[in-house]
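Need tokens for this chain, all 469 residues.
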Amino acid sequence: MRGNASLAGSTILIIDDTPANLAFAVEGLEEHGYRVLVAQDGREGVTRAELMHPDLILLDVMMPGMSGIEACKLLRANAAARDIPVIFMTALTDVGSKIACFEAGGVDYLTKPLDMDEVAIRINTHLSLAKARADLKEKNRLLELEIAERQRIETELCQLFARLKENEERFRSLVELSSDAILTVQDGAVTFANHAALSLFGVSRIDEVMGRPYLSLVALPDRLAVEAILQALMPDGSCHMHDEQVLGLDGVITDVTVTRVAFSHLGKTMIQVVLHDISKRVQLIQQLQYQATHDPLTGLPNRTLLLDRMQQMINLGKRQQERFKVCFVDVDRFKWINDTYGHDAGDEVLRSVSRKISTMLRKTDTLARIGGDEFVLILQESGMEDESTLVLSRIAGVIAEPIWFAGNEIKISCSVGCCSFPEDGQNVEELLHFADAAMYRAKKTQQPRTRELEAFFWYETPGAERHGQ
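Here are the structure tokens for all 469 residues:
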């Protein structure tokens, strides 16, 4: 599998103290078209990152001298390197180590031994996200320049209108040429609208907006705030800017930045309203926010959003004495499926598992994919005895149904380990740790061996029976 052509030539810095690991990674990444730099300890890696500014860093966690965690913290504290995405490489499998990687500033982690196809996919994903963030930053910079220039122009316009308020025809010529929507409002009603305003509000004739209450063109959630702004405006030449939404006569809601200024005309106070469409910027921000909190393959919440939701449920549970279960779900023999049927089949298996589980969940439950073939379920306890057990049983049943891909019947099973809040843990780290431990026990045995594990629930599908408390 080759790297994304648009990202070929990107520079990857590998920091690893083991020459054999470096050689393997360099060869694999160069085959995918990347330019590769190497460093054999954390301090050397930090120095090279500051000097060469690579596009992405692969960082080993366990190194003598300066560990990968310490190196990542130094990178995040350095202005020249803090924006470089860092993907940790580790043979550690415990949840605490993984969480420490994210807390240090890592964007992802890879489990050793490395699968170079998976490494290339992860690198491409984070290079794409980094490019999107850089593009957004540049667009915001240009937007700030545009806003500053627009404020300067609008200030000049305010001054010009004050000098030329007796010359209405000149005023009309000026605003009609504007690409922004411009209205004038008197006594709460629209008295003028340029062509851009007609387009913004979804009408073709000026008489469709003339005389209409101005607040009726403001989206309902913003009306009270806008009404207060209008009442506070004074004809002293000062301008007021505000981000809000407008409601077109065609029912379309649009995000806009609005500039308002009050002025006197023929002894009456009028308000000039200039509306600049920012809907594309808002959509881009929402898209980036979604990408930052959701898994790109399945569309499920990712680790970041899962941790946030778990903390919210813990806080709510402590206040209202509510219980919930945290379940680790791991697809059995997933590497074998990838090796046998190909990575496209593996991706379809993950999407199918996410769809099947999602159809069995209630509105109060959450399903997240936290990497590879690992999913996490949060099941809200409703008070009905064994309701969550019934949900898990239904999930086990649908997962056992074969998946067809490219004419092949793929039979899968999953190992599931569960623990309960508040009995098995009082915080996110404890709950994930115990659920993860239960899941690994489910892969090895169907009977609890120690009293310590009797607080866990674990499952194996298909055809496995429930064990545990």
